[in-house]
Design a protein that fits this description.
With about 110 residues, the chain is mainly β. The chain is built from one helix and six strands, in the order βββββαβ. The chain has a five-stranded mixed barrel with strand order 1-2-3-5-4.
Length: about 110
């Protein structure tokens, strides 16, 4: 279980004009590859509401071949997700990177 602070909630618009369709944040005091706190995407089958914080399980890591940091995927403890859902929900940002998804927890969920 990991607890994250959400600094870009659903609806947040960054300086490049990207609007976040999911919650995005970081794990306090855990350093990522860029020397900043570890970034996380919050993924769910259910529509998301803007959050300030989130506690969930780590199910996957998005590795970027053209960036120095990885993005972790956190989900609610009672959900199982797959690569298809991760790819769909993170496409708004990952489309700009050469990235791939590594599942760190087996999922028997066949829903896209």
């Amino acid at each position: 279980m990991f607890s994250a602070i959400i600094d870009r909630p659903v609806g947040f618009e960054d300086s490049f004009g990207n609007v976040y369709p999911i919650n995005y944040g970081y794990i306090p005091e855990m350093m990522g590859g860029d020397g900043e706190e570890q970034d996380v995407y919050i993924i769910s089958h259910d529509p998301q509401q803007p959050l300030e914080n989130f506690t969930g399980k780590l199910v996957a890591i998005i590795h970027r071949r053209d960036d120095i940091e990885d993005k972790w995927i956190l989900v609610p403890v009672n959900e199982e997700i797959n690569k298809t859902l991760i790819a769909e929900q993170t496409h708004f940002m990952e489309q700009y990177f050469d990235s791939w998804i590594e599942m760190v927890e087996e999922s028997n969920d066949s829903r896209p």
